Amino acid sequence: MSTDPPTPLTPHSILNLDVLFNNPVFAGGIGLAGLGAAAAFGRRATISGIALLRRQMLVNIEISKRDPSYSWVLAWLAQPRDNSGFLARRLTRLRNLSVNTTTKSLSSAGRVDEGRTHADFRVQPGFGRHIVRHRPGVYIAVNREKASTTSTATGEPHETLTLTLLWPHRHVLGEVFTEAHSLAQSFQQGKTVIYTARRMEWTVLGKPRLKRPLGSVILDEGVKERIVGDVREFLAAQQWYTNRGVPYRRGYLLYGPPGTGKTSFIQALAGELDYSVAMINLSEVGMTDDLLAQLLTQLPEKSILLLEDVDAALANRRERDTDGYSGRTVTASGLLNALDGLAAGEDRIAFLTTNHIDRLDPALIRPGRVDMMVRIGEATRYQAAEMWDRYYGDIDTDRLGRARFLARLADLGLFGGDSQNPSVPKRHTSTAAIQGLFQFNKNDMEGAISQAEGLIPRTFEPESLPTEGSTIKSPA
User: Is the pTM of the predicted complex or chain greater than 0.85?
Assistant: First the structure.
């Protein structure tokens, strides 16, 4: 008979969890699940930490293509850089590139080389991610992206340029934009930028043009000096306008027959002042009063506003043309309010031109909208003499040729009847016609004198249908 104490009974769990935990398969699954959860939590924590670190350690700046600095920064990024050093050679490899090409014709010794042009290629970062070195120890990450949306004005896709730097290097952004702006100005040194309105924004029209010297535009005696002096006085009087609460803007109207140098003078004046020219075509389909007012309040900095042929732009059109255009869209009242209304901008120099001042509404040319009206008329004796000296002054040293040329024009009555022969009718010619004559006779002043009769204004009659076998033999 055994005397061993009885074995105590182990209490069983209601759910038998001890059995489950003692099961190696179940315990392994719990372990794997725990490891997965821990890994997921660690991954999420890592991502959050990296994002937090990026927010704390990095600074991003996004530049839209619509911003003027977009092209400046791209040109700055295209400049050659010193990438010496182990780290720089491996980080700053640009693999996605784009090219910006400019061309110009080659000429030498007065001879144009047939078919030869000079091409200037500027390589810049293309779409994608890049890293450039600004200076030793300072790197900039560049991300150039093209959006799926397009501009309503040009139809071009929207683009953005994002620059990323370390937070301690954030002050470098100021250096970047300063250098980019200086570089852009160096590209435009000696040139005049022409802007044109496209829908709701201003865009550069073609390539910047070489500045036209103010002396190359010959106006009547004292006219050019009077306008230039008034513009310079206006630019120096901004504080005077501010102190008296007067809107800081000035308007000029140049009127007279075509070909007298109105537009050429405005372009030369812009070059003299180192300004650009912003043109608006009031006759453009889609140009409305609201759009005109908005454009005038968003003029490019340091630009001269040019509204050409305002009389033709506001003339009544047919109610509907064959192309479906149903008349003008810019009204006279809309133009008046844009120039001098509640929505009119300030810090503006505006030039209006017209061939027919009698067709303009008196309200358009009142002071405040047009502060100075100047007639740019037909060629005078003074202008013809100045133009002769400009073209032939180096070969006509004794000025005898100039005297013969002026006498010939007077005999033809081209100075308004300033002729000794009373039978000669009173005529006028334009400076554009004289310039064309001189350009046709380069370095040949005798040819210019002998062909002066071609300056007589021609009248054209309606052409009749040619008869069979007839040919046209008259010169153009």
Answer: no
